[in-house]
Design brief:
alpha/beta; putative 2-phosphosulfolactate phosphatase; 2 domains; 4-stranded mixed β-sheet; 11 helices; 11 strands
Length: 262
């Protein structure tokens, strides 16, 4: 008989290894048995979903600017210099020498269509590295909440020993409200699709956070710590864009360190 589906949540990229270890210890599930939804609302996953939605061929995430530079050099030799863009940020500021930052508004169809994006960010790309051993890794933002929940439910429903991990990138290794609210909304949607599921303490807390936030996503993003930080740097339009919910059914997936449309 198949075990009930358990859902856990990591509240920062530093917490991901602990949650994977807990799932293995409590459920017997190896990392390869875990289906992961990865979130960094402000702004890495919002940017990734947008870029791929605008016909970016693939996103190559790296946890450090130097690793991104090295990767871009190799990819440009293989695909041509103009066909690879180098983007990212540190502390919300563009990285000197990079082609662009980490704003989803930068990666329009005209700019990114038919090209590859090498991306390094303060938090999101570190979380991608942390979950790389999970069996499936899907990229989530408010822009594709429902599609990601459906994908997670479908995959878990077909598995013999299912476990779902929602990995929040957090901020500098710590908790952030916007990622937790998005995680709670995904979990609530998964529960609606699958019926009874087993939630960890942190997963239940995320659902309660989402219930408290409700659907006034933009207001939540404006008032959270990182949203205020972005606004001080003149990035208010990014906040409004990242708050738009379910405007795409695309579910990007990371396979062997590269993110493409699944």
């Amino acid at each position: 008989m198949r075990n009930s589906i358990c859902v856990d949540i990591a509240l920062s990229h530093h917490e991901v290894p602990l949650r994977i270890k807990d799932i293995h210890r409590l459920r017997g599930a190896d990392p390869g048995d875990i289906f992961c939804g990865l979130i960094d609302i402000l702004r890495a996953t919002s940017t990734i979903v947008t870029a791929l939605g605008n016909c970016c061929l693939a996103v190559h995430p790296h946890s450090s600017p130097q690793a991104a530079l090295d990767s871009a050099k190799i990819l440009r030799q293989e695909h041509g210099y103009a066909n690879v863009l180098l983007g990212g940020e540190q502390n919300a500021k563009p990285i000197p020498g990079f082609d662009g930052g980490n704003s989803p508004l930068e990666y329009t169809h005209d700019r990114i269509g038919g090209r590859r994006l090498v991306l390094s960010t303060s938090n999101g790309t570190k979380t991608l590295a942390a979950v790389s051993k999970c069996g499936r890794v899907f990229i989530a933002a408010f822009s594709n909440l429902t599609a990601v929940a459906q994908k997670l439910a479908e995959e878990a429903g077909r598995h013999e020993n299912p476990a779902i991990l929602i990995a929040c990138s957090g901020r500098e290794g710590g908790y952030c409200e916007e990622d937790t609210a998005a995680a709670g909304l995904i979990i609530a949607k998964v529960r609606h699709l699958l019926g009874k599921i087993e939630l960890s303490d942190s997963a239940r807390a995320a659902v309660r956070t989402a219930e408290h936030v409700g659907w006034d996503i933009a207001e939540t993003l404006r008032n959270c710590t990182w949203g205020k930080h972005l606004a001080r740097h003149g990035l208010g339009p990014d906040i409004e864009f990242c708050a738009k919910t379910d405007w795409t059914k695309a579910v990007p997936e990371m396979i062997d360190g590269v993110i493409e449309q699944s």
